[in-house]
Amino acid sequence: MDLPPEELQFLTITDILKESTSIPKQSPKTFYLITLTLIFPLSFAILAHSLFTHPLLTQIQNPNDSHTDEWTKLLIFQFCYLIFLFAFSLLSTAAVVFTVASLYTSKAVSFSSTLSAIPSVFKRLFITFVWVSLSMILYNIVFLGFLVLFIVAVDTRNPILFIFAMIVVFLLFLVVHVYVTALWHLASVVSVLEPVYGFAAMKKSYELLKGRTRMAAVLVFGYLAICGMINGVFGSVVVHGGEYYGVFSRILVGGFLVGVLVIVNLVGLLVQSVFYYVCKSYHHQGIDKSVLYDHLGGYLGEYVPLKSSIQMENLEI
Q1: Helices 68-104 & 289-299, crossing angle to 10 degrees?
Q2: Fewer Cβ within 10 Å of end Cβ, the chain: N or C?
Q3: pLDDT at position 66, please?
Q4: Which residues of the chain have pLDDT under 70?
Q5: Treating both helix axes as pointing N-terminal to C-terminal, what angle do 177-193 and 199-209 enclose, rounded to 10 degrees?
C-alpha cells in the first residue's frame, strides 16, 4: 500500500480489490507458503465436507436399517470438521493480517516469522471469536424464532403474519447476518493490529464501520455470494452428479473449484486487512508505523518500548 494514509479513505471497492491483489507480489514466497499450508487445507475442507457427509446422510435416510453407527460417525465427523474449520480459519486470518501489516510497516517478512507470531495472535483472535460466537448464537435464536413464526403463518394462511415474518426473516438474514460477518472480520484485524481484543475489539470494529457500513456490506455479500455459488456447483456436479458426469469430469471440476475457492479466500483475507486501513483513514485515525512495527515485534518476543497505543489521534500537542 504505497498510498499516503490520508488518501486510503478515498479508495473505492474496485481500488480495494486491486490493492489487495497486488500485496502478494511484495512477498510472493511468504504468501505462497501461507496459501499452501493454511488456506488450501481450509478451502479443501469446506468443499470436501459434503463429499463425506453425503453417503452417511443417504444411509440415515434409509428407513429399513438401524442408524446408530451412522449417526455416531456423522456427529464425530461434524465435530472434527468444525474444530478443523475453526482452527485453520483463525490461523489463516492471523497469518495474512500479520504479514500484510509487516509489509505496511516495511518490517522484514518471512514465512518463519509469520509462524512465530501466530501463537500469540491466535490467542487474541480466539477470544474475539468467542465474543462474536455469542453474538451469532443470539442472532440465530432470534432468526429461528421468526422462522418458526413464518412456518406458522404459512400453515394458518395468515397473510399479515406471513408478510411480517417474511420481511423480518429476510432482513435478519440479508442485513444482520452480513453486518455481523463484517463486524467479525474487521474485529479480527483489530485484534491483531491494536492492543485490544474480545468485546473491546468488537466495539472498536463497530466504531470503524460507521460511514463505511455500505462498502463493508457489499464486500461481505459479494464474498458470501461467490462462496455460495462455488459450493452450489460443487454440490450439484461433484457430490450429486454421479449419474450425469464421469469420475474424471467430477475430479477435474472439483479440483478447479477448490483452486477458485483458495483464491477467493486469500483475496478475502487481504481485502479485510486493507479495509481496516481504509476505515482508519476515513475516521482520520492515523497509524504510527513505528509503533505498529513495535507492536508486531511484540508477537515475536522482540523488545517493545512502553507506548500506550498504536493510535496517534488521541495525542494532544
Answers
A1: 140
A2: C
A3: 61
A4: 1-4, 61-67, 162, 301-317
A5: 110
Phi-psi region of 106 (alpha: psi -120 to 50; beta: other; left: phi over 0): left
Q: How far apart are CA 120 and CA 16, in angstroms?
A: 28
Are the C-beta atoms of 8 and 281 separated by less than 8 Å?
yes
- Over the stretch 53-86, which tens digit does the pLDDT of each residue have? 877 777 776 666 666 777 787 888 888 888 999 8
Task: Report the candidate in 264, 15, 188 with the shortest Cα–Cα distance to residue 2.
Answer: 15
For residue 65, the model assigns a pLDDT of 62
Write down the pLDDT at residue 31: 94
pLDDT given for residue 304 in this prediction: 47
Which has the closest alpha carbon to 24: 36, 13, 14, 12?
A: 36
| pLDDT score for 2 | 64
